[in-house]
Design goal:
Radius of gyration: 18 Å
Number of helices: 9
Strand order of the largest sheet: 2-3-1-4-7
Number of strands: 7
Shape: globular
Number of domains: 1
Distance between the termini: 8 Å
Structural class: alpha/beta
CATH topology: Rossmann fold
Helix content: 40-55%
CATH class: Alpha Beta
Order of helices and strands: EHEHHHEHEHEEHHEH
CATH architecture: 3-Layer(aba) Sandwich
Length: 211
C-alpha cells in the first residue's frame, strides 16, 4: 500500500485533475479539510481533539493530522493507499507522513504565477446559481453578465500573497521529494485535457512501481 501526493498553487486545477488521478489509480482523494470534518462529525477522540483546536482558532497540530491519515488508511476503500490533496505542505509534515505511509509518487502541477493571477482575478460568480465564469476564457452569457460578481479574495494582491506563501512552503518540499526520486513535475499551463494526459502518462510510466 502506497499513497500519492498532489500539490500545486491555488488555481492550478488540482481539483479537476485529482478526480482523474483517483479514477486511474483507485486511490480515494482526501484532503486534511475532508478528514477533519469527518473526524469532528464522527465524535472520535481525534475528532474531539481537532475540534478543540479549531474552535480556538488554532492550527491543528501535525500529530493530529497524521493520526487522522493513519485512521483513514485503515478504511476499506484505502486498501491501495490515498491520494493526498494538498498535504503535506512542509518538510516537517512530509517527514511525519513518512513514518506512517509510503509515498510512491508526488505530482506537482506547475503554472507560472502570472497565468495563475490571470485565472483567479478573471473569475466571476453568478450569485443566482453559483456558476463560475471567467471574463476571458469562459465569459458569462448575456443574461448573466450584469449580475456576476468577483469574490472578495480573488483580487491580485491577495492572490500574489497566497502564491508567495505557497512558494515559500512548497519549493523546499518539492526538492525534498525530488531527492527521493518520487517527484513528477507537470506543466499545468495547458488545457485541462493536455494536463490530464500528461498526468496519465506519468502514472503509466511508473510501470511496476506500486502507485
Amino acid at each position: 500500500m502506497t499513497s500519492i501526493v498532489l500539490f500545486g498553487p491555488p488555481g492550478a486545477g488540482k481539483g479537476t485533475q485529482a478526480a482523474r488521478i483517483s479514477s486511474l489509480t483507485g486511490k480515494p482523494q482526501v484532503s486534511t479539510g475532508d478528514m477533519l470534518r469527518a473526524a469532528v462529525a464522527s465524535g472520535s477522540d481525534l475528532g474531539s481533539e481537532a475540534k478543540g483546536y479549531m474552535d480556538a482558532g488554532l492550527l491543528v497540530p501535525d500529530g493530529v493530522i497524521i493520526g487522522l491519515i493513519s485512521q483513514r488508511l485503515r478504511e476499506p476503500d484505502a486498501e491501495s493507499g490515498l491520494l493526498l490533496d494538498g498535504y503535506p505542505r512542509t518538510i516537517a509534515q512530509a517527514e511525519a507522513l513518512s513514518e506512517v505511509e509510503d509515498v510512491s509518487m508526488v505530482i506537482s502541477i506547475e503554472v507560472p504565477d502570472e497565468a495563475i493571477i490571470e485565472r483567479i482575478v478573471g473569475r466571476r460568480m453568478d450569485p443566482h446559481d453559483g456558476t463560475i465564469y471567467h471574463i476571458r476564457f469562459n465569459p458569462p452569457p448575456t443574461e448573466a453578465a450584469s449580475r456576476v460578481v468577483q469574490r472578495e479574495d480573488d483580487n491580485e494582491e491577495t492572490v500574489r500573497n497566497r502564491l508567495s506563501a505557497y512558494h515559500e512552503q512548497t519549493a523546499p518540499l518539492a526538492d525534498w521529494y525530488q531527492d527521493r526520486g518520487v517527484l513528477v513535475r507537470i506543466d499545468g499551463d495547458r488545457t485541462i485535457g493536455e494536463v490530464g494526459d500528461a498526468i496519465g502518462s506519468a502514472i503509466a510510466s511508473m510501470g511496476s512501481r506500486d502507485v
